[in-house]
């Protein structure tokens, strides 16, 4: 007979490994599937200063490894594989990887979301070394320096406002002639003396002289201009990692799994934790909190069924 786990957790980031820790400590037969490395998107971050308990900060890769070790200490298992599809139509859930099919009584989806990228040369190469996607994670490296924020929505404006408190100068580059962000976000940024708006412009390329030295922008009228800066923060939205789910679960208009603070989805026995679900704030600590909540309701679901 094929093995049936109590719970399979899809994604080995802070939500996934916190859920695994709580599930394993509760005595559940727990498997985590992760396609890259423990920590998920967190591993792309340098020092994390806003996670409690590490007064001198901790890098994302190390924190991810520690979370994995904590869960595995209580018996959770990790399988490095990528999920191709799922079947939640029966009481026992079926998860297909590229080389096998896994089975579980309950599933916690914690596959996260990844930042949308500009898609320009050198962006991948310089990620974490001048090109960033999280102002609150990496902004402190740019105290008294010059940065450029790319985007025009609420997140971009919030990032620019946060960076304006640290950096010497902040450029906010947006492809339209007005910001999409709500007015309540725009007002304090417009009052920041060290912020400059660059409208009707897109980033054409990164000026890379052994690191980020600036950006070349393409204006709406076809002209180009170079802006000197020490770092770039891309804030043009995030893409939830839900493609493998097909039509098995309810998603919102942006592709995030519809789940409230209970982490329960529209499918009994399937929970969504971390950045992949609809929520107001996506940080390491809120992902970890989701993991603990998902584990609680998973244990409850299994005991009742």
List the helices and strands and how they pair.
Elements: E1 4-10, H1 14-25, E2 30-34, E3 47-48, E4 58-59, H2 60-73, E5 77-80, E6 83-87, E7 93-97, E8 101-109, E9 113-115, E10 131-132, H3 135-138, E11 146-150, H4 154-164, E12 169-173, H5 183-190, E13 195-198, E14 201-208, E15 212-219, E16 224-228, E17 231-234, E18 238-240, E19 270-272, H6 284-304
Parallel strand pairs: 1-2, 1-8, 2-5, 8-19, 10-17, 11-12, 11-17, 12-13
Antiparallel strand pairs: 3-4, 6-7, 7-8, 9-18, 14-15, 15-16
Helix pairs in contact: 1-2, 1-6, 4-5
Short key terms for the protein model shown above:
305 residues; alpha/beta; FAD/NAD(P)-binding domain; 2 domains; 23% helix
Q: What report would you give on this structure?
A:
The chain is an alpha/beta fold and 305 residues long. The protein folds into 2 domains: 4-114 and 238-304, FAD/NAD(P)-binding domain (3-Layer(bba) Sandwich); 117-234, 3-Layer(bba) Sandwich (FAD/NAD(P)-binding domain), CATH 3.50.50.60. The protein is 23% helix and 29% strand. It contains 6 helices and 19 strands. It starts with a strand and ends with a helix.
Q: CATH superfamily name of the largest domain? A: FAD/NAD(P)-binding domain
Number of domains: 2
Any idea what the shape is? elongated
State the low-pLDDT regions, or none.
Answer: none
Number of strands: 19
- What is the typical, i.e. mean, pLDDT? 93
CA radius of gyration? 21 Å
Q: Biggest sheet: strands, sense, closure?
A: 7 strands, mixed
Helix content: 10-25%
What's the number of helices?
A: 6
CATH fold category name of the largest domain: FAD/NAD(P)-binding domain
Order of helices and strands: EHEEEHEEEEEEHEHEHEEEEEEEH
Q: What is the terminal separation in angstroms? A: 21 Å
Q: In what range is the share of β-strand residues?
A: 25-35%
- SS class: alpha/beta
Name given to the CATH architecture of the largest domain:
3-Layer(bba) Sandwich
- For the record, what CATH class of the largest domain applies? Alpha Beta
